[in-house]
Amino acid sequence: MLGQGVVKFLCLLVTFFGGVTSLRDVMLLVQPTTVIRGGTAALVCSRDMQGAPLYSVKWYRGNHEFYRYTPMEEPDTRVFGLPGIYVDMNRSNGTQVLLRRLDLTLAGNFSCEVTADSPSFATQVATKFIDVIALPPTAPVLKADKDRYQPGEVLRANCTSSPARPAANLTIYVNEEPIRSSETSLHPSESGLLWTLVKADLKVTPDLFVGGRLRVACIATVYDVYRSSANLDFFTPDTDPRPERITLNGASKCFQSWILVLLLFLLPVVMGQDIYTFLDYDDYDEKYIPAAIASLVGG
């Protein structure tokens, strides 16, 4: 009987203290989880203390502690030097930490470790990955091997992104439909970032000239935070704008006009001085020079 009473008492004791001091449901919320280089991230550590007093909350990048909150100490917050970590002390406390000016080297796992006070000193850790990215500074560059294509020819296009981290994803479209690339490659830049090169080949058919135009586009994306594009338009021979040509008739008119001008200047030499009395040079300028100029452009 005595033994059973002791067991029951111990069970009640464990149940009582367990219900009062247990720690559970530690969760870490990061906003945003993808940060553009130089940006800001908020880390919020929530928990259910179940009535137990809080001993400490510690924040880690990987295995390195960079911030600690201990409500029973004075001061109650401490920052530990870690290269690239800038804690906004005015907006950080036992529940949240605000990080500013995040650099690419800080991409990785961030954790909050919550510890309850005596008698349990229960501890739980929650971890989230934060990605720090660098966006392409300029739009992609799209090129083709020719300026004009006829049905039956092969259109060869290539698209290049500017350096980024991660490398930009490039997709080539023809009339808003993606086409399969023939080659995709990544290349390192001097800054340590990566630029992308994509090539695609397409046999040109008449039905690709929708409304007389074939459009090739290249779209660059980085996750869901960046999107940029470049376009090339190719026209059918009937609609492709061309420089105006001088026709044979226009050339004949031009030749005749210059012959007329030459004869007008040579006649006084041949016929004598009396011809000059019949010529009004001001009137000639007004009537004949505009006509001669017009004939030069096929008028």
TrEMBL record:
Organism: Trichoplusia ni (Cabbage looper)
SUPFAM superfamilies for the chain: Immunoglobulin
Annotated TM spans: 258-279
Name of the featured protein: Uncharacterized protein LOC113497030
Signal peptide span: none
Gene3D superfamilies linked: Immunoglobulins
Lineage: superkingdom: Eukaryota
Matching InterPro entries: Ig-like_dom, Ig-like_dom_sf, Ig-like_fold
The keyword Nucleotide-binding belongs to this UniProt entry's keyword annotation: no
Gene designation per UniProt: LOC113497030
Record keywords, A-Z: Membrane, Transmembrane, Transmembrane helix
Domain Ig-like: 24-122
